Amino acid sequence: MLLNLLLSTSDSLNEPNLLVFPNPSANQFEYLLSLPDKQPYVFQIHNATGELIYRKSGNPDSEIIKERISSSQWADGIYYVSVHAGNFLKTLKLLVQK
Known about the structure:
three-stranded antiparallel β-sheet
């Protein structure tokens, strides 16, 4: 079901896409990243002051990357979740609220 949602929110099935859920989040959230060309990517999370909270980069083995991240130690507030892969750049807001 999440894969269908990811694909349906993309302009094209051949374009990368990013979903973050649940949003707002309390103690953990997941991201789902679609990279049809399996290109190298950088995934980052910054807090509202611009401080880097989390970073992951890699060369995916599959077109879909799914990961769960704990936000239990983070302060309540808005965080910016971004991914950069090739010419694709997308940033989403994530609200952490306990």
